[in-house]
Amino acid sequence: MARSRYQTHRAVAETRITPDKWNAARDAITDAAERFSTLVAHADPQAMATAEWSVMDTAAHVAGIAWLNASSMVPGDTSFPLPAVREQVAAATVDTMHTGLNPALLDAYQERDPGRVVDRLRASIGEILRLTTTADPTTTMDWLGGSRIPLAGLLAHLTNELLVHGRDIARAVDAPWRIPPEYAALFFELFLIEIARNGAGHILDCDRPEHRGRIAVEFRSAHTSPVTMVLDTGEVWIEEPSRDNDVRVHFEPAALSLVLFHRVPHARAVMTGSLRVWGRRPWLLVPFLRKVRLP
Questions:
Q1: Cα 159 to Cα 7, 30, 47, 164, 263, distances in angstroms
Q2: Strand ranges (DSSP E) for 160-267?
Q3: Cα(269)–Cα(267) distance, rounded to whole angstroms?
Q4: Average confidence (pLDDT) per 10 residues, the chain, 295 residues
Q5: CATH 3.30.1050.10 spans which residues of the chain?
Q6: Rounded to the nearest 5 degrees, what angle is found at the Cα of 41, between the Cα atoms of 40 and 47?
Q7: Residue 254 and residue 274: Cα distance in Å, rounded?
Q8: Sign of the CA dihedral 258, 264, 266, 272?
Q9: Max Cα-Cα span within the chain
Q10: Distance (Å, rounded) from C-alpha 120 to C-alpha 114?
Q11: What is the b/e burial string over 214-241, where b = at least 16 CB atoms within 10 angstroms of the residue's CB?
C-alpha cells in the first residue's frame, strides 16, 4: 500500500493474513453460520432482537449481507435482485449505515420466513466458500464506501455479523450464545487492520471537525499480534508498534467487538478488565474513536 503523505519513517505494518488464519477464517464462518441458522430456526420470529428489529428482521439483514457478498465475488454478476442496495454500497459511510444501506437492504429483501431466510444464508455462505476455495486470501475487492478489503477480511466481517447479531437474537429469546475470542481476533486482524492497510475510502467520512495531528494507538491481546493504528488529520494507516505510541490498549477480542458495535459500554469493558488503556497520552483515545468507529 502506498504511504500517506503524513507517514514518517516508522515501519508500515505487514499483513496479518497467513495460511493458518485463512483456514481459521473459513472454519469460523462455517461454524458461526451453522450456529446462527440453528438459533434462528428455533427462535420466536416476532421477538425483538434490537429496539427496531425483530428476530427475523435481524436474520434477514445478515442473510442479505451474505447474499450481496456472494454476488459481489462474481464479476458482472446480475443475479442479485437488489439494485437499490448496490447503489447504497458505494455511498455508504459509518454514519449513514443506519439510514441508508441497512433499511435499503431490509426493504429490498422482504423474506421473513425462518426456513427460507436460513436457506438463503446457508446457500450464500456455501457459495462464498466455494468461490474462494483456491483463492489468494490477500486479494482485495471493493467494499463499502470505496474501501478495499481482502477476501480474508470479507469472511471475518461476515463471521462477526453472524456472531454479534446472533448475540442480539439469543438475548431476545434467552438462549445461550458465545463469541469465541479466536473468531473475534480474526475480525480485528483480518478486517479492521486490513481495511486500514488497504484503504478505508470514504467510509469514515463525517461532518465533524478532524483532529489535527498524529494519534498512534497500539493494540495488544493474547490472541493477536501487536499492531499500531495511526490517525493523522483524518487519514488512517497501520504501523508496527513503536515506543512513542500515544495510547496502548490491551483487549479481549470479543469485548472489543461488542464495544465497537455499541453492545457493551466502554466503561463496563474497562471496569471488568476486558479493555485496559494506558500510555503517555491516553486521553487521545477519545478523539481517535470519534473518527475510527463502527456503525
A1: 32, 8, 23, 9, 17
A2: 214-221, 224-232, 235-239, 247-251
A3: 5
A4: 52 91 98 98 97 97 94 69 78 93 93 98 96 96 93 98 98 98 98 95 90 95 97 94 95 97 95 96 95 93
A5: 214-291
A6: 50
A7: 9
A8: negative
A9: 56
A10: 10
A11: bbbbbbebebbeebbbbbbeebbbbbeb
Spell out the CATH class of 19-198: mainly alpha
Beta bridge partners of 116: none
201: left (phi over 0), alpha (psi -120 to 50) or beta: left
Is the pTM here over 0.85, yes or no? yes
Residue 271 CB coordination number (10 Å)? 10
**If one looks up domain 214-291 in CATH, what number appears?**
3.30.1050.10
Q: Please tell me what DSSP assigns to residue 48.
A: B
Phi, psi values for residue 160, rounded to 5°: -65, -40
Cβ neighbourhood burial of 278 (10 Å; 0-12, 13-18, 19+): exposed
Q: Where in the chain is the domain with CATH 1.20.120.450?
A: 19-198
State the Cα–Cα distance between residues 19 and 126, nearest whole angstrom.
20
